[in-house]
Amino acid sequence: GTTDSAPDDPVIELADVTFGYTATPVVDDVSLSIDPGEYVAVVGPNGSGKSTLLQLTLGLRRPDEGTARLFGEPAHRFDDGDRIGFVAQQASAAKDMPITVREVVEMGRYPHVGFGRLWRDDREIVDAALETVGMAALADRRIANLSGGQRQRAFIARALAGEADLLVLDEPTVGVDAESVAAFYDLLESLNEDGITVVLVEHDIGAVTDHAERVVCLDRSVQFDGPTAEFVESDAIRRAFGTAAALAGDAR
Ligand code: ADP
Protein backbone atom coordinates (compact mmCIF):
# COMPACT_ATOMS: atom_id res chain seq x y z
CA GLY A 1 0.00 0.00 0.00
CA THR A 2 0.91 3.62 -0.37
CA THR A 3 -0.35 4.66 3.05
CA ASP A 4 1.89 5.03 6.04
CA SER A 5 -0.76 4.23 8.61
CA ALA A 6 0.35 2.30 11.66
CA PRO A 7 -1.04 -1.23 11.92
CA ASP A 8 -3.01 -0.35 15.06
CA ASP A 9 -4.70 2.74 13.62
CA PRO A 10 -8.46 2.41 13.51
CA VAL A 11 -9.54 1.22 10.08
CA ILE A 12 -12.41 3.68 10.18
CA GLU A 13 -12.66 6.75 12.36
CA LEU A 14 -15.58 9.18 12.21
CA ALA A 15 -15.46 12.15 14.57
CA ASP A 16 -18.57 14.30 15.03
CA VAL A 17 -19.61 13.75 11.41
CA THR A 18 -22.65 15.69 10.24
CA PHE A 19 -23.96 15.66 6.67
CA GLY A 20 -27.15 16.70 4.89
CA TYR A 21 -28.29 16.71 1.26
CA THR A 22 -30.34 19.75 2.25
CA ALA A 23 -30.17 21.98 5.32
CA THR A 24 -31.51 19.09 7.42
CA PRO A 25 -28.79 16.60 8.36
CA VAL A 26 -29.42 12.93 7.55
CA VAL A 27 -26.24 11.99 9.45
CA ASP A 28 -26.05 13.95 12.66
CA ASP A 29 -22.96 14.17 14.86
CA VAL A 30 -21.83 10.57 14.37
CA SER A 31 -18.64 9.41 16.05
CA LEU A 32 -17.47 5.91 15.41
CA SER A 33 -14.19 4.04 15.49
CA ILE A 34 -13.62 0.58 14.02
CA ASP A 35 -10.39 -1.29 14.74
CA PRO A 36 -8.58 -3.83 12.56
CA GLY A 37 -10.18 -7.26 12.77
CA GLU A 38 -13.61 -6.15 13.98
CA TYR A 39 -16.90 -7.40 12.52
CA VAL A 40 -19.40 -4.58 12.80
CA ALA A 41 -22.97 -4.46 11.57
CA VAL A 42 -24.53 -1.09 10.79
CA VAL A 43 -28.28 -1.32 11.12
CA GLY A 44 -31.25 1.04 11.19
CA PRO A 45 -34.63 1.59 9.57
CA ASN A 46 -35.01 2.60 5.93
CA GLY A 47 -33.84 6.14 5.41
CA SER A 48 -31.86 6.21 8.67
CA GLY A 49 -28.68 7.28 6.88
CA LYS A 50 -26.80 3.98 6.54
CA SER A 51 -25.86 4.36 2.87
CA THR A 52 -24.95 7.99 3.36
CA LEU A 53 -22.74 7.06 6.30
CA LEU A 54 -21.04 4.44 4.13
CA GLN A 55 -20.33 7.03 1.45
CA LEU A 56 -18.89 9.40 4.06
CA THR A 57 -16.81 6.56 5.49
CA LEU A 58 -15.38 5.64 2.09
CA GLY A 59 -14.65 9.28 1.21
CA LEU A 60 -17.23 9.40 -1.58
CA ARG A 61 -18.88 12.32 0.19
CA ARG A 62 -17.33 14.85 2.53
CA PRO A 63 -18.81 15.71 5.92
CA ASP A 64 -20.35 19.15 6.38
CA GLU A 65 -18.87 19.04 9.85
CA GLY A 66 -16.46 16.68 11.56
CA THR A 67 -13.87 14.35 10.05
CA ALA A 68 -13.84 10.91 8.43
CA ARG A 69 -10.61 8.94 8.36
CA LEU A 70 -9.78 5.68 6.59
CA PHE A 71 -6.67 3.75 7.64
CA GLY A 72 -5.52 6.90 9.39
CA GLU A 73 -5.92 9.24 6.40
CA PRO A 74 -8.66 11.73 5.56
CA ALA A 75 -11.20 9.50 3.80
CA HIS A 76 -11.61 11.71 0.73
CA ARG A 77 -7.85 11.63 0.11
CA PHE A 78 -7.42 7.90 0.65
CA ASP A 79 -6.20 6.40 -2.63
CA ASP A 80 -5.23 2.85 -1.77
CA GLY A 81 -8.54 1.48 -2.98
CA ASP A 82 -7.37 -2.13 -3.25
CA ARG A 83 -7.28 -2.28 0.55
CA ILE A 84 -11.07 -1.99 0.48
CA GLY A 85 -13.40 -4.58 -0.96
CA PHE A 86 -16.84 -3.11 -1.55
CA VAL A 87 -19.74 -5.46 -2.17
CA ALA A 88 -22.93 -3.71 -3.23
CA GLN A 89 -26.45 -4.99 -3.51
CA GLN A 90 -27.36 -7.49 -6.19
CA ALA A 91 -29.14 -4.81 -8.13
CA SER A 92 -25.78 -3.31 -9.08
CA ALA A 93 -25.04 -2.96 -12.78
CA ALA A 94 -21.95 -5.16 -12.57
CA LYS A 95 -24.00 -8.30 -12.81
CA ASP A 96 -24.61 -7.86 -16.52
CA MET A 97 -20.95 -7.53 -17.47
CA PRO A 98 -20.08 -10.07 -20.20
CA ILE A 99 -17.07 -11.45 -18.35
CA THR A 100 -16.19 -14.60 -16.48
CA VAL A 101 -15.73 -15.14 -12.76
CA ARG A 102 -11.99 -15.51 -13.24
CA GLU A 103 -11.81 -12.22 -15.12
CA VAL A 104 -13.67 -10.47 -12.32
CA VAL A 105 -11.27 -11.88 -9.74
CA GLU A 106 -8.24 -10.99 -11.88
CA MET A 107 -9.36 -7.35 -11.71
CA GLY A 108 -8.37 -7.48 -8.06
CA ARG A 109 -4.73 -7.94 -9.16
CA TYR A 110 -4.58 -5.06 -11.65
CA PRO A 111 -3.61 -2.34 -9.14
CA HIS A 112 -0.79 -4.63 -7.97
CA VAL A 113 0.70 -5.04 -11.45
CA GLY A 114 0.29 -1.43 -12.55
CA PHE A 115 -2.58 -2.54 -14.78
CA GLY A 116 -0.10 -4.53 -16.85
CA ARG A 117 -0.10 -8.30 -17.33
CA LEU A 118 -0.59 -10.78 -14.53
CA TRP A 119 2.36 -12.96 -13.55
CA ARG A 120 2.31 -16.51 -12.28
CA ASP A 121 2.21 -15.34 -8.66
CA ASP A 122 -0.83 -13.21 -9.47
CA ARG A 123 -2.57 -16.19 -11.06
CA GLU A 124 -1.86 -18.25 -7.95
CA ILE A 125 -3.39 -15.54 -5.80
CA VAL A 126 -6.45 -15.47 -8.07
CA ASP A 127 -6.78 -19.27 -7.85
CA ALA A 128 -6.47 -19.15 -4.06
CA ALA A 129 -9.16 -16.45 -3.84
CA LEU A 130 -11.50 -18.51 -6.05
CA GLU A 131 -10.83 -21.50 -3.81
CA THR A 132 -11.48 -19.55 -0.60
CA VAL A 133 -14.93 -18.44 -1.71
CA GLY A 134 -15.80 -21.84 -3.18
CA MET A 135 -15.93 -20.65 -6.80
CA ALA A 136 -12.99 -22.55 -8.34
CA ALA A 137 -15.27 -24.92 -10.23
CA LEU A 138 -17.25 -22.02 -11.69
CA ALA A 139 -14.25 -19.87 -12.62
CA ASP A 140 -15.00 -19.89 -16.35
CA ARG A 141 -18.70 -19.15 -16.03
CA ARG A 142 -19.96 -15.77 -17.04
CA ILE A 143 -21.00 -13.52 -14.19
CA ALA A 144 -24.39 -13.04 -15.81
CA ASN A 145 -25.05 -16.79 -15.59
CA LEU A 146 -24.54 -17.13 -11.85
CA SER A 147 -26.98 -17.15 -8.97
CA GLY A 148 -27.05 -14.07 -6.78
CA GLY A 149 -25.07 -15.76 -4.04
CA GLN A 150 -22.40 -17.03 -6.43
CA ARG A 151 -22.00 -13.58 -7.93
CA GLN A 152 -21.46 -12.03 -4.50
CA ARG A 153 -18.80 -14.66 -3.81
CA ALA A 154 -17.06 -13.70 -7.03
CA PHE A 155 -16.95 -10.05 -5.91
CA ILE A 156 -15.56 -11.10 -2.55
CA ALA A 157 -12.90 -13.14 -4.34
CA ARG A 158 -11.94 -10.04 -6.34
CA ALA A 159 -11.42 -8.18 -3.06
CA LEU A 160 -9.33 -11.08 -1.69
CA ALA A 161 -7.22 -11.16 -4.84
CA GLY A 162 -6.60 -7.45 -4.29
CA GLU A 163 -5.47 -8.26 -0.74
CA ALA A 164 -8.18 -6.08 0.76
CA ASP A 165 -8.06 -5.87 4.54
CA LEU A 166 -11.43 -4.16 4.83
CA LEU A 167 -14.64 -5.57 3.41
CA VAL A 168 -17.60 -3.20 3.26
CA LEU A 169 -20.90 -4.75 2.29
CA ASP A 170 -24.14 -2.91 1.63
CA GLU A 171 -27.07 -5.29 2.12
CA PRO A 172 -25.19 -7.98 0.21
CA THR A 173 -27.83 -10.70 0.46
CA VAL A 174 -30.79 -8.81 -0.99
CA GLY A 175 -32.06 -11.05 -3.78
CA VAL A 176 -29.89 -14.00 -2.73
CA ASP A 177 -31.77 -17.28 -2.20
CA ALA A 178 -32.25 -18.39 1.38
CA GLU A 179 -29.92 -21.42 1.34
CA SER A 180 -27.07 -19.37 -0.06
CA VAL A 181 -27.50 -16.60 2.50
CA ALA A 182 -26.34 -18.75 5.43
CA ALA A 183 -23.30 -19.95 3.50
CA PHE A 184 -22.51 -16.37 2.54
CA TYR A 185 -22.45 -15.25 6.17
CA ASP A 186 -20.33 -18.26 7.09
CA LEU A 187 -17.84 -17.12 4.47
CA LEU A 188 -17.77 -13.59 5.90
CA GLU A 189 -17.21 -14.99 9.36
CA SER A 190 -14.28 -17.13 8.26
CA LEU A 191 -12.70 -14.19 6.39
CA ASN A 192 -13.07 -12.14 9.56
CA GLU A 193 -11.39 -14.93 11.53
CA ASP A 194 -8.52 -14.64 9.04
CA GLY A 195 -8.13 -11.00 10.12
CA ILE A 196 -10.19 -9.06 7.56
CA THR A 197 -12.23 -6.19 9.04
CA VAL A 198 -15.89 -6.55 8.09
CA VAL A 199 -18.40 -3.71 8.01
CA LEU A 200 -21.83 -4.95 7.06
CA VAL A 201 -24.77 -2.65 6.38
CA GLU A 202 -27.77 -4.87 6.85
CA HIS A 203 -31.55 -4.69 7.12
CA ASP A 204 -31.86 -8.39 8.02
CA ILE A 205 -31.66 -8.14 11.78
CA GLY A 206 -31.46 -11.93 12.14
CA ALA A 207 -28.29 -12.10 10.07
CA VAL A 208 -26.81 -9.38 12.23
CA THR A 209 -27.58 -10.97 15.57
CA ASP A 210 -26.24 -14.30 14.28
CA HIS A 211 -22.91 -13.08 13.01
CA ALA A 212 -21.68 -9.64 13.97
CA GLU A 213 -19.79 -9.01 17.21
CA ARG A 214 -20.75 -5.39 17.39
CA VAL A 215 -23.80 -3.44 16.26
CA VAL A 216 -24.04 0.23 15.39
CA CYS A 217 -27.70 1.21 15.19
CA LEU A 218 -28.26 4.41 13.28
CA ASP A 219 -31.20 6.72 13.05
CA ARG A 220 -29.63 9.96 11.89
CA SER A 221 -27.46 9.76 14.99
CA VAL A 222 -26.01 6.69 16.71
CA GLN A 223 -28.79 5.02 18.76
CA PHE A 224 -26.68 2.13 19.95
CA ASP A 225 -23.05 1.07 19.64
CA GLY A 226 -21.93 -2.03 21.47
CA PRO A 227 -21.88 -5.81 21.65
CA THR A 228 -24.59 -7.62 19.68
CA ALA A 229 -25.71 -9.49 22.79
CA GLU A 230 -26.49 -6.16 24.47
CA PHE A 231 -28.18 -4.79 21.35
CA VAL A 232 -30.80 -7.57 21.27
CA GLU A 233 -31.73 -6.64 24.86
CA SER A 234 -31.77 -2.91 24.21
CA ASP A 235 -34.51 -0.37 23.72
CA ALA A 236 -32.73 0.66 20.53
CA ILE A 237 -33.58 -2.59 18.72
CA ARG A 238 -37.24 -2.21 19.65
CA ARG A 239 -37.34 1.41 18.54
CA ALA A 240 -35.63 0.61 15.25
CA PHE A 241 -37.24 -2.68 14.32
CA GLY A 242 -40.24 -3.22 16.60
CA THR A 243 -40.83 -5.82 19.25
CA ALA A 244 -41.34 -8.72 16.83
CA ALA A 245 -37.97 -8.22 15.17
CA ALA A 246 -36.31 -7.94 18.54
CA LEU A 247 -37.91 -11.20 19.64
CA ALA A 248 -36.85 -12.92 16.42
CA GLY A 249 -33.33 -11.77 17.17
CA ASP A 250 -33.57 -13.13 20.71
CA ALA A 251 -34.84 -16.49 19.48
CA ARG A 252 -31.76 -17.20 17.40
P1 ADP B 1 -30.57 4.21 4.41
O1 ADP B 1 -29.38 3.69 3.69
O2 ADP B 1 -30.53 3.96 5.89
O3 ADP B 1 -31.87 3.77 3.82
P2 ADP B 1 -29.91 6.76 3.20
O4 ADP B 1 -28.55 7.17 3.62
O5 ADP B 1 -30.05 6.15 1.85
O6 ADP B 1 -30.53 5.81 4.32
O7 ADP B 1 -30.87 8.01 3.26
C1 ADP B 1 -30.94 8.89 4.37
C2 ADP B 1 -31.83 10.06 4.00
O8 ADP B 1 -31.19 10.82 2.97
C3 ADP B 1 -33.18 9.65 3.42
O9 ADP B 1 -34.13 10.59 3.89
C4 ADP B 1 -32.98 9.76 1.95
O10 ADP B 1 -34.21 10.06 1.30
C5 ADP B 1 -32.00 10.91 1.81
N1 ADP B 1 -31.12 10.76 0.64
C6 ADP B 1 -30.35 9.70 0.35
N2 ADP B 1 -29.63 9.90 -0.77
C7 ADP B 1 -29.97 11.13 -1.21
C8 ADP B 1 -29.56 11.93 -2.33
N3 ADP B 1 -28.66 11.49 -3.21
N4 ADP B 1 -30.13 13.16 -2.46
C9 ADP B 1 -31.02 13.62 -1.56
N5 ADP B 1 -31.44 12.91 -0.48
C10 ADP B 1 -30.93 11.69 -0.31
For the structure shown, list the relevant keywords.
single chain, 252 residues, alpha/beta, Rossmann fold, 6-stranded mixed β-sheet, 4-stranded antiparallel β-sheet, globular, binds adenosine-5'-diphosphate
Describe the structure.
The chain is an alpha/beta fold and 252 residues long. The chain has a single domain (12-251), classed as P-loop containing nucleotide triphosphate hydrolases (Rossmann fold). The chain is 34% helix and 22% strand. It has eight helices and ten strands. It has helices at 50-57, 101-107, 120-132, 148-161, 178-193, 205-211, 228-231, 235-251, and strands spanning 12-19, 27-34, 39-43, 65-70, 73-74, 84-87, 166-170, 197-201, 214-219, 221-227. Strands 6-7-8-3-9-10 form a six-stranded mixed sheet, with helices on both faces. Helix 2 (101-107) packs parallel to helix 4 (148-161), helix 3 runs antiparallel to helix 4 and helix 6 packs across helix 8. The longest helix is centred in the C-terminal third of the chain and has 17 residues, at 235-251. It is globular, with a radius of gyration of 18 Å. The termini are far apart. Bound molecules: adenosine-5'-diphosphate. The site of adenosine-5'-diphosphate has 10 residues, from helix 1. Adenosine-5'-diphosphate (ADP) binds next to helix 1.
